[in-house]
Write a structure and sequence with these properties.
Layout: E1 5-11, E2 15-22, E3 25-33, H1 36-40, H2 49-62, E4 72-76, E5 87-89, H3 92-100, H4 109-122, E6 126-129, H5 139-142, E7 143-146, E8 149-150, H6 157-170, E9 179-185, E10 189-195, E11 198-202, H7 221-228, H8 235-243, H9 247-252, H10 257-265, H11 269-292, E12 299-304, H12 310-320, E13 326-330, H13 334-346, E14 353-354
Parallel strand pairs: 1-4, 4-6, 5-14, 9-12, 12-13
Antiparallel strand pairs: 1-2, 2-3, 5-6, 7-8, 9-10, 10-11
The chain binds adenosine-5'-triphosphate and butanoic acid.
Catalytic activity: butanoate + ATP = butanoyl phosphate + ADP
GO molecular function: acetate kinase activity; ATP binding; butyrate kinase activity
Subcellular location: Cytoplasm
Length: 356
């Protein structure tokens, strides 16, 4: 069997994660943490391109993996047009939309851009798989309450789908036979309802639902409009407040939940209140998603970086275990999911899709 060496790149809000796979075997995995001040120097996500590319190539050089040995590169796909799940070849149109941030600013917009440029430099194919813009929402879920505004499906789809398949398989079932509420707890938070393998509703993790380490989630709408027209902030400043400097960061000046827990241990009452409030909002959103499934929920699944925290998961479980059993799958398997998505196409097991 031919060996394919694949570089997977996953730019997140607090880190850039990379891995190199020889077929499905991972030979390098690294999380490069970025401090908030470093990333805040860039006014737009696309401006971080050179900075993130350098940390990736430096890391590969340090680990002794020559770029010339790669057969393909795959990045986490971003806020593109709503699209069905699958592996897509990166093309110029996609890069244009990622740079523009068609559905908004998000670190994963850099995944396709980095993959495309590396692909061009080394004459290898570049892909994305299950981007943030995967959209399986039912029509009823799209109605917002104002005719001009539709609710949108933007989520940690890559990890959420992979974890859904894994938890179902571990229970001897198929993801397509189960009803799940899957919650990704990262720099942003996605709370998603899955009916028989389709993600039928989701808080848009960039603008709705619970607040997260760096995002506001849903805000009191009249007060938000007032703030927008107060003359204190530009459009870009407001966008930044909502998606990069909101949530825990706006109250405590950090996006790192480990730091928040350390402060609580030292007796910081404000940190404790903010963490409790985040948990409260997450649990409320899980309750709302249970109603989209009419209470027919096989499991609630907690995943993402913050799911490493026993404190946070225990507090969520206490509030939602009356709905269904809760399974915790800490961290994410996005890099593996990316590599496997590329491999399926390289091996001819799946057709690559074209973005247009
Ligand atoms: N052991 C831990 N305990 C508590 N929080 C943790 C732990 N490990 C990581 N985190 C928190 O998880 C969050 C990052 O999660 P994750 O890596 O899933 O997201 P990300 O990739 O940075 O962002 P995005 O939401 O854009 O995907 C940070 O707030 C980090 O502080
Ligand atoms: C916008 C949803 C995905 C993420 O927050 O990473």
């Amino acid at each position: 069997m031919k060996n394919y060496r694949i570089l997977a790149v996953n730019p997140g809000s607090t880190s850039t994660k990379i891995a190199v796979f020889d077929n499905s075997e991972c030979i390098l995995k690294e999380t490069i943490e970025h401090n908030a001040a470093e990333l805040n120097k860039f006014s737009r996500v696309a401006d971080q391109y050179e900075y993130r590319l350098k940390v990736i190539t430096d890391s590969l050089v340090k680990k002794g993996i020559p770029m010339e040995t790669l057969d393909a590169v795959i990045g986490r796909g971003g806020l593109l047009k709503p699209m069905e799940s699958g592996t897509y070849r990166v093309n110029e149109k996609m890069v244009e939309d990622l740079k523009e941030g068609l559905q908004g600013e998000h670190p994963s917009n850099l995944g396709g851009i980095i993959a495309f440029n590396l692909g061009q430099d080394y004459q290898i194919p570049s892909y994305i798989v299950d981007p943030v813009a995967v959209d399986e929402m039912e029509d009823i879920a799209r109605i917002s309450g104002l005719k001009e505004l539709s609710r949108r499906s933007l989520s940690h789809a890559l990890n959420i789908k992979a974890v859904g398949r894994k938890v179902a398989k571990d229970a001897g079932r198929s993801y397509f036979d189960c009803n799940f509420i899957i919650v990704h707890l990262g720099g942003g938070i996605s709370v998603t309802a899955h009916r028989k393998g389709r993600m039928i509703d989701v808080n848009n993790a960039n603008s709705e639902g619970p607040f997260s380490p760096e995002r506001t989630g849903t805000l009191p709408v009249s007060e938000l409009v007032q703030l927008c027209y107060s003359g204190k902030y530009t459009y870009d400043e407001m966008k930044r407040k909502i998606t990069r400097e909101g949530g825990v960061y706006s109250y405590l000046g950090t996006k790192d939940m480990r730091e928040v827990e350390k402060r609580i241990e030292k007796g910081d009452r404000e940190a404790e209140l903010i963490l409790e409030a985040m948990v409260y909002q997450i649990a409320k959103e899980i309750g709302a998603m249970a109603t989209t499934l009419k209470g027919d929920v096989d499991k609630i699944i907690l995943t993402g970086g913050i799911a490493h925290s026993r404190t946070v998961t225990a507090k969520i479980i206490e509030r939602v275990e009356f709905i269904a059993p809760v399974v915790v799958v800490p961290g994410e398997e996005e890099l593996e999911s990316l590599a496997l998505g590329a491999l399926r196409v390289l091996m001819g097991e799946e057709e690559e899709k074209t973005y247009s």
